[in-house]
Amino acid sequence: MLKVAIVGASGYTGVELLRLLHCHPEVAVTCITSEQSAGKRISDIFPSVRDRYDHLLENLEPVRVADKADFIFTALPHKAAMEVVPTFLRLGKRVVDLSADYRLHDAKEYAAWYEPHMNPELLKKAVYGIPELRREKVVKAGLVANPGCYPTSVILGLAPLLKQGVVDSASVIADSKSGVSGAGRGAKVESLYCEVNEGFKAYGIATHRHTPEIEQELSLLAGERVTISFTPHLVPMDRGILSTLYAKLTGGHTTADLLNLFREFYHGEPFVRVLPEGSFPSTAHVKGSNFCDIGLAVDGRTGRVVVVSAIDNLVKGASGQAVQNMNIMCGFPETMGLEALALFP
């Protein structure tokens, strides 16, 4: 059994890791930490895990955590992760980090969107963990930077188009909507029920921190600098991300042509489902699962392609993708622990 620690287990991504790993036959969770709730039982914080996990939440002491685990998930806020990840690596542990601390390759870029990086030498060593595009590097990685939720939906929805050069890379627009759990479990006025219910709003316009992460990966796919317009929206639902993506076509491609391109690009990928022509994703059809559903249509009138992708922000957009990366790193079947279908209705 692989002994696993979850560092920062009292947030939504932490409890989602517990839910998924409970169904993993090769994993034993041996240590969970929480600075705010240390000394309490995880089942008191999350009654959903009662009688399955009764671990005491511990203070974050990296050496002590490393003594208890072979593999570590860090589900911490940015900056907090970079304070402990180097210690875990120095002690020979493999890490999947769910924060933003190691997603950007350029320390100057990280500083521009976040703050100065404490260990910039690790940015070049970290592998951006989107398995469908980086599987060969994930296998050998000691540190995997788990992608953000919005970037996962956007990158998977655009990758075949940019890789094959069938769209103008300067024309890309990403319009994304997320459930409230994407804001985390911390108490914030803008996440209160009365602030969110019966409302629908854009936020982070032209300033959202996932923008450089998206542009970095799309640029690598396109082989040239890609700058996009990205606007996230908050929707009054618990889970899910739906991204609607627009780009100008460079040729006379039909909907059928592009669907065939997507099917070929994602052939054999266990968690990407390319929908039939005329069908489009819904967050309701991926809730609780590790799937990314993708549909598209060519708008002949404007010469654009419209791609729609849907994921569960806490699964494929966070903890599920983290487990998928762990499976690849440790030589387990990639789908192990992740086979569950969506919760519907």
The biggest beta sheet is recorded as: 7 strands, mixed
Give the helices and strands as they follow along the chain.
Answer: EHEHHEHEHEHEHEHEHEEHEEEH
**Which blocks of ≥5 consecutive residues have pLDDT under 50?**
none
Q: State the shape.
A: globular
Q: What is the percentage of strand-forming residues?
A: 15-25%
Question: What's the CATH topology name of the largest domain?
Answer: Dihydrodipicolinate Reductase, domain 2
Structural class: alpha/beta
Q: Which bin fits the share of residues in helices?
A: 25-40%
Count of strand segments = 13
Kindly state the mean pLDDT as a whole number?
96
C-alpha Rg (nearest Å): 20 Å
- The total count of helices amounts to 11
The first-level CATH class of the largest domain is given as: Alpha Beta
Number of domains: 2
In brief:
With 345 residues, this protein is α/β, with parallel strands linked by helices. The chain has 11 helices and 13 strands.
Structure description:
With 345 residues, this protein is α/β, with parallel strands linked by helices. It has 2 domains: 124 residues, NAD(P)-binding Rossmann-like Domain (Rossmann fold), CATH 3.40.50; 167 residues, Dihydrodipicolinate Reductase, domain 2. 30% of the residues lie in helices and 19% in strands. The chain has 11 helices and 13 strands. The strands form 2 sheets. Strands 8-9-7-10-13-12-11 form a 7-stranded mixed beta sheet. A 6-stranded parallel beta sheet has the order 2-1-3-4-6-5. Strand 5, helix 6 and strand 6 form a beta-alpha-beta unit. The longest helix has 16 residues. The two termini are 35 Å apart. The mean pLDDT is 96.
